[in-house]
């Protein structure tokens, strides 16, 4: 095979065995890799009703056909499982160097099944793999565990591991790779922890062979030049990183503030990408094969929040900043460092703290439970609570379950700003109508990278306050995003590229002739496959919704004053555009057209 390595590593943690299988070439052609291909394997092998934290759940680490290639921004890999936060399919994507190294070591995919009785890690080197004892690593934060593993194996080793958050099965735990990159959402780190799998270490000396090397180089060079010439990928992201959006969204009036009670934050300038660049930035950092280099290496030089690491990204900056009413950038940055060390998702952690702040301020959470003043604007609290969540100590034990379950504990789940129990990110859906439809219909719950409508409604020229046509726009973005994810390419490249360029890359690399049309069908197939799994898992159209605040409470002030999200006007049209019935179930005709009619699920 070209592009794909052609090997799958199957790891039975219960038995302590590893074996190599051949990749299903037909599935690879139809689903590409990463999110699409691993979901096809997962659906075939796992009962949708499985308890996410039981040994019967599986976890798949997977790369795409473009991962580790000479293309641009091709460092992406994915983790697929059933998420404990949502009870839905979980597909969490990360960059860095780990994904490319996995392919260099001889594998497209690693399937983990069962659960070990004791802590272990998986060591992979050039086509060989073995499970090793990890008892000495259990309880250690991610940076320390990574350093130990590199010292025990090879200096060039790449590591993906969980921290105490995943070990303690926090439903907002993530998996960290290369110390600072994260498969962040849906609680995938908790699944890894439930299997007593501390880490995966890979060492590879191989390479990915293109079907047409000359064409692959030509396409890669053209794409690199396109990205460098684009205002976002060539200037905005390299200069300010993702926090360049802080001032943009705040000025738009759609910057969720104090748990989505407001949409304009008075502290935006103090926490902006411009301020981060001028005060904390050490240097830029790029993932594998990337010309954008949006990563931020930062340092807080002094004071109670002193530290060194990477980030915060825009979503983290918001989750700990405006969402919690905190305008102290060093405190936000420190909380970000702690999330990376404990292996917990910054979006869900910050948003859960914000939910706790509203519960506390409204008297629903007693002080004896809180143990401190959990109030909006309290910079010390966001740092202390992050550590408590990572350790599951005190009130942190409850917050580690995520905001929806926290709200339930105190009788007010409506104060969780989540969709399908996953915390929504940094775009208020009352001010950006299409984002509300995206949050509600995302197969993995509240998410901004399943069809980034902000690109059209805020950064583009589509009116954000209208609902007409948003169904078709979103479907197109959701399907094309599924393709980019599954190819192993960074989503940020889509600011400057379309599926025409993706098709050119994939065709040159794999030797399979892809077109824009065939890729859109591929994306549609992937999105429907995920939907089918969720329906079998017990989710219904009732889960395609938003928090009551988004539907009933108008924005109180600012440029979007008076707006609510008009989801009920968009959802029926979206179902119809998707080829689903009025209950959000794909029709037999739709499934037949996508080759999914006779799909068999795992038992």
Automatic annotation (TrEMBL):
Keyword presence, Iron-sulfur: yes
A Pfam entry, by short name: AFOR_C
Cofactor: tungstopterin; [4Fe-4S] cluster
Listed SUPFAM superfamilies: Aldehyde ferredoxin oxidoreductase, C-terminal domains, Aldehyde ferredoxin oxidoreductase, N-terminal domain
Aldehyde ferredoxin oxidoreductase N-terminal domain residues: 4-206
MF-aspect GO terms: 4 iron, 4 sulfur cluster binding; electron transfer activity; metal ion binding; oxidoreductase activity, acting on the aldehyde or oxo group of donors, iron-sulfur protein as acceptor
Keyword list, A-Z: 4Fe-4S, Iron, Iron-sulfur, Metal-binding, Oxidoreductase
Keyword Iron-sulfur: yes
InterPro entries reported in the protein's UniProt record: Ald_Fedxn_OxRdtase_dom2, Ald_Fedxn_OxRdtase_dom3, Ald_Fedxn_OxRdtase_N, Ald_Fedxn_OxRdtase_N_sf, OxRdtase_Ald_Fedxn_C, Tungsten_al_ferr_oxy-like_C, W-dependent_AOR
Family designation: Belongs to the AOR/FOR family.
Protein name: Aldehyde ferredoxin oxidoreductase
Protein's organism: candidate division KSB3 bacterium
């Amino acid at each position: 095979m070209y592009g794909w390595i052609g090997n799958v590593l199957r790891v039975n943690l219960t038995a302590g065995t590893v074996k190599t299988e051949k990749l299903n070439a037909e599935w690879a052609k139809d689903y590409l890799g990463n999110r699409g291909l691993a979901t096809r394997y997962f659906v075939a092998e796992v009962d949708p009703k499985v308890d996410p934290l039981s040994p019967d759940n599986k976890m798949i680490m997977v790369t795409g056909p473009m991962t580790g290639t000479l293309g641009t921004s091709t460092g992406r890999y994915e983790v697929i499982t059933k998420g404990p936060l949502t009870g839905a399919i979980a597909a969490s994507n990360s960059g860095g160097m780990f994904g490319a190294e996995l392919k260099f070591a001889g594998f497209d995919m690693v399937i983990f099944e069962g659960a070990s009785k004791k802590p272990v890690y998986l060591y992979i080197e050039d086509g060989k793999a073995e499970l090793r004892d990890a008892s000495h690593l259990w309880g250690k934060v991610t940076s320390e565990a990574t350093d130990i593993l590199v010292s025990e194996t090879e200096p060039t080793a790449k590591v993906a591991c969980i921290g105490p958050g995943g070990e303690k099965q926090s439903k907002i735990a993530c998996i960290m790779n290369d110390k600072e990159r994260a498969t962040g959402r849906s609680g995938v780190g908790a699944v890894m922890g439930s299997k007593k799998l501390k880490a995966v270490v890979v060492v590879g000396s191989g390479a990915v062979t293109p079907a047409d090397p000359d064409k692959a180089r030509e396409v890669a060079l053209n794409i690199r030049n396109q990205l460098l010439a684009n205002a976002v990928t060539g200037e905005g992201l390299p200069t300010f990183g993702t926090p360049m959006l802080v001032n943009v969204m705040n000025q738009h009036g759609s910057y969720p503030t104090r748990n989505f009670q407001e949409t304009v934050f008075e502290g935006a300038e103090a926490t902006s990408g411009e301020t981060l660049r001028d005060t904390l930035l050490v240097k830029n950092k790029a993932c594998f094969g990337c010309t954008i280099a949006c990563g931020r290496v930062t340092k807080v030089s002094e004071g109670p929040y002193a530290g060194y690491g990477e980030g915060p990204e825009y979503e983290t900056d918001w989750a700990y900043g405006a969402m919690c009413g905190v305008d102290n950038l060093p405190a936000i940055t420190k909380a970000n460092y702690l999330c990376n060390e404990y292996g917990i998702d910054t979006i869900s952690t910050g948003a859960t703290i914000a939910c706790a702040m509203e519960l506390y301020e409204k008297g629903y959470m007693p002080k004896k439970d809180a143990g401190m003043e959990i109030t909006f604007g309290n910079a010390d609290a966001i740092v202390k609570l992050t550590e408590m969540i990572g350790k599951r100590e005190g009130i942190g034990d409850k917050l580690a379950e995520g905001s929806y379950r926290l709200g339930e504990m105190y009788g007010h789940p409506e104060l969780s700003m989540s969709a399908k129990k996953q915390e929504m990110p940094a775009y208020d859906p009352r001010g950006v109508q299409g984002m509300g439809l995206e949050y509600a219909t995302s197969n993995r719950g509240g998410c901004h990278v399943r069809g980034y409508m902000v690109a059209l409604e805020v950064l583009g020229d589509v009116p954000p306050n209208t609902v007409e046509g948003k169904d078709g726009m979103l479907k197109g973005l959701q399907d094309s995003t599924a393709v980019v994810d599954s190819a192993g390419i960074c989503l940020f490249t889509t600011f400057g590229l379309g599926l025409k360029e993706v098709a050119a890359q994939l065709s040159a690399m794999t030797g399979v002739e892809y077109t824009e049309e065939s890729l859109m069908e591929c994306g549609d197939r992937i999105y429907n496959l995920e939907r089918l799994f969720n329906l079998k898992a017990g989710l219904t159209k009732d889960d395609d919704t938003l928090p009551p605040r988004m539907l009933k409470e108008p924005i109180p002030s600012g440029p979007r004053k008076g707006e609510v999200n008009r989801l009920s006007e968009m959802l029926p049209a979206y179902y119809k555009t998707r080829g689903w019935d009025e209950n959000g179930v794909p029709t037999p005709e739709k499934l037949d057209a996508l080759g999914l009619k006779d799909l068999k699920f795992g038992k």
